[in-house]
Amino acid sequence: MSTHADEKPWTIPALAEAKRNGRKLTMLTVYDAGFARTLDQNGIDTVLIGDSLGMVVQGHDSTLPVTVDNMVYHTEIVARVLKRALLIADLPFQSDATPERALDAATRLLRAGARMVKLEGAGYKLDVIRYLTERDIPVCSHLGLTPQSVLTIGGFKIQGREEAAAAKLVADAQAAAEAGAAMIVLECMPSVLGKRITEAVSVPTIGIGAGPDCDGQVLVLHDFLGLDSGHRRPRFVKDFLAEGGSVAGAVRAYVEAVRNGSFPDAEHAYQ
Ligand code: KIV
After folding, report:
1. What domains sit in the chain, N to C, each tagged with a CATH number?
2. Is 256 a catalytic residue?
3. Whose CA is nearest to atom 6 of ligand 1?
4. Most distant CA pair in the chain: distance in Å?
5. Going by CA atoms, what residue is nearest to atom 2 of ligand 1?
6. pLDDT digits (tens, 9 = 90+) for 177-233
7. Does the CB atom of residue 219 touch ligand 1 within 6 A?
8. How many CB atoms lie within 10 A of CB 123?
9. Distance between CA 211 and CA 256 in Å, rounded?
10. Which residues share a beta bridge with 87?
11. pTM value?
């Protein structure tokens, strides 16, 4: 099993290598320099400036109000302190509605220090993924529960329970990888589907409520610290601060639990 040297900065090819070697990847969201430094120094592989910042930092009830300017601001302050973790930034709502808009937004995020951008959904977004990756912008796809679709989905709900929906998600993941996505976040689906998608694609999958068989795991920082988000706490959330005793201890406990496969357990996954 590969042991990506602790001090070595992560690169996009190293993510694929980690999957090939069965080395689990760790990710947390982060929005500011202080937490970013702590995550970076305590073994987190990749950090995500999630548009969840609309909910956990700005206090909105969805991610829809987040702008590209907001994302650039948080990306700049996090990028300034990272030494090792790979920084991924979300393309916020409608900034990826056309390939050209996505290219403008993604270029701003990469100039601010991101090394990869994440975008939600398949369908016409596959053309956006292809357009960006052909122009040397690494892309992470986000499938399953896609929070930017909250109005059409009708809430934050588990996805892919029916076989037709599950098969579509497998096909979408394969198409996203085919279009050039270097990583895929899988949100809120039965563990068996997280496993099925992970086995169907050659790029790493990062689960959030998608079971233990994904190639890595991500949690929203505020959930991971047990903070009250003002929303119903999803089943997959675990308070690692209670276990770790300090923020640094919580990060180390999370890294160890993801790497040794003990998180997520059945209590924090959907059957
Ligand atoms: O915005 C975000 O924090 C995310 C994670 C939930 C993966 O997309």
Report:
1. 12-268 (3.20.20.60)
2. no
3. 220
4. 46
5. 50
6. 999 999 999 999 999 999 999 999 999 999 999 999 999 999 999 999 999 877 788
7. no
8. 9
9. 16
10. 47
11. 0.97
